[in-house]
Amino acid sequence: MTQPSRDLEPAHSARDLYGVELRRQRRLLGLSLDRMSDIVNYSKTHLHGVETGERLPLPPLSEKLDVAFGTDGLFQGLWGAVKREYTPRRFDHCLELEARAVRIQAFGASIIPGLLQTAAYMRELFVRAEPGRSPQEIDSLVAARLGRQEVLRRTCPPDFWWILGEATLRQAVGGPAVMREQLGALLPLAYTRHTTIQVAPFAAGASALMNGTLILLTLPDNSTTVYHEGPWNGEIYDDQETIRRGMREYDRMKACALPPQESAALIEAVMETFEPCEPPRT
Q: Which of 18, 51, 124, 197 would you label with 140, given CA atoms 20 to 30 Å apart?
């Protein structure tokens, strides 16, 4: 039996506003959910969940809806508001800067940075961070983080530079299959026109950045903002002394990290150690 839909509150929730507007636009054109599903190539179940506020719209649904309805960016704008609803407040400003940045440099000591994570990898992180979360809450968090990765697919994306601690490659988040997929997803981005990935090997020893995540966001006016995150908190810094210190430590990490080609070779070698488990023979 179908469960009754909850009452939507578009005045208080961007997620609900998105659902209400999707239903309104669809009905204005006299489209059924089945027909809408054919047009945007998303399942009827997913579209119904978005309309009722039970699911977050998976990227790139918003772009497809704007094309289908001729709404000139309406749903893409609503999606930006939805993403901010499902992001910790301490990270809000960082996301705003990330969307405007022309250069993004990041270091992850033990966790693959969010812009590089696969859905399965991030799902495992969310589950482990708070085991009591419902599957619907996890789905919403995954969809919101996947939405951040739209910046990678822009016509003119920022310049990206990631440095990964070797621990990020070897920590078995989610098991062998998840890690093989995650490491495989890194390889096409290791050295391209807009992306560079380096690995800081264990042999490089200690560094000032080894206890967290650092993100350097450079805007079109050439100003840079630092975001630093530890296990339980994160902070934005825009004072010149902290910016200089962050950039200096990041440059030192670059100097100690493997070149992109050697980094890719190490990623591939570690990926091969995550062999899928085979069921025992009977």
A: 197
Main-chain dihedrals φ then ψ at residue 195, nearest 5 degrees: -130, 140
CATH of region 14-84, choose from 1.10.260.40, 3.40.30.10, 3.40.1190.10, 1.20.1310.10? 1.10.260.40
Give the count of beta carbons closer than 10 Å to the beta carbon of residue 27: 10
Please give the Cα distance from 259 to 264 (Å, whole number).
9
Helix, strand and coil in the chain, % to nearest 5: 55, 15, 35
62-67: long-range pairs with CB below 8 Å, 24+: 64/39, 64/40, 65/22, 65/25, 65/40
pLDDT tens for 190-212 read: 999 999 999 999 998 888 888 78
CA 96 to CA 229: how far, in whole Å? Answer: 16
91-273: CATH class: alpha beta
Which residue is listed with tokens 């006016």? 221
In this prediction the pTM is 0.70
